[in-house]
Design a protein that fits this description.
With 250 residues, the chain is mainly beta. The chain is 10% helix and 34% strand.
């Protein structure tokens, strides 16, 4: 599984905006070309994908790329997290493949373009764009990183755990934390008391340790989110410190 970095503000702007404000009507069709056939699973709507990409204008000049930003782009296909041209054009690919999307303006940034408050525009209004997108992997497993190695007992299924934690979205917004209550959070590991990403990602921690879990939507709050704090199909990042545990009786 590829490593995941926090999505930058520029990347969010360049891919998440759609042409929903366009009143000019459709003009041109999406053109899809497979540059390299993948050998992995077939990409379908609802999958969370790890991708790399290059965005170019018709003259070949680049305006955006994952390489320039130093991170892969992660999103769930078909739910409006990316340009309409991406949502409509990537289905049916296989993991490992690269597909060229020639996207007309009304399926890209529309008549608003991708402009900033200072008047500059990364993508001018009513501009067709071209993306070469490589699907690197399907993000459906928890990524585990021990930031501090504990030296106490090891957490196992059915143990009662007492933890401190902070949960954030990939843009850095904190949506939950024990710092807000000043109390430890208690739960039984492996019993479904917490989201599946916790039950899968915490076993093996040691008391005194801190672990970062990067959790795909399918193992978090999925298509529904969690109230106003967690949007649908959100990737979640938790920093968890295991303070104490009570071993399950033999």
């Amino acid at each position: 599984m590829k490593s995941i970095l926090n999505a930058s503000f520029v990347l969010l702007l360049s891919l998440a905006l759609t042409a929903c404000d366009s009143n000019d009507g459709p003009n041109g069709s999406l053109v899809v070309t497979d540059l390299e056939e993948g050998t992995g699973v077939v990409v379908e709507p609802g999958m969370t994908l790890i991708t790399s990409y290059v965005g170019r204008f018709a003259d070949g000049s680049s305006f955006d790329s994952s390489e320039e930003l130093g991170e892969d782009w992660i999103f769930t296909l078909g739910v409006g997290q990316v340009l309409k041209g991406w949502d409509e054009g990537l289905g049916g690919m296989r993991v490992g493949g690269t597909r060229r999307l020639e996207i007309p303006s009304h399926l890209a940034f529309g008549r608003s373009g991708q402009c900033f408050s200072d008047g500059t525009c990364a993508v001018p209004p009513n501009t067709d764009v071209i993306y070469d997108v490589t699907v690197l992997d399907v993000f459906d497993e928890v990524i585990v990183e021990d930031t501090i190695e504990g030296d106490g007992e090891v957490a196992e299924a059915n143990d009662v755990l007492f933890v401190e934690y902070t949960g954030q979205l990939r843009n850095g917004d904190v949506f939950d934390s024990t710092n807000l209550t000043g109390t430890l959070f208690q739960f039984t590991l492996g019993r479904g008391n917490v989201i599946p990403g916790w039950d899968q990602g915490i076993p093996g921690m040691k008391v005194g340790g801190t672990r970062r879990l990067t959790i795909p939507p399918v193992l978090a709050y999925g298509p529904y989110g969690a109230g106003s704090a967690v949007p649908p199909f959100a990737v979640l990042i938790f920093d968890i410190r295991l303070v104490e545990l009570v071993k399950a009786p033999d």
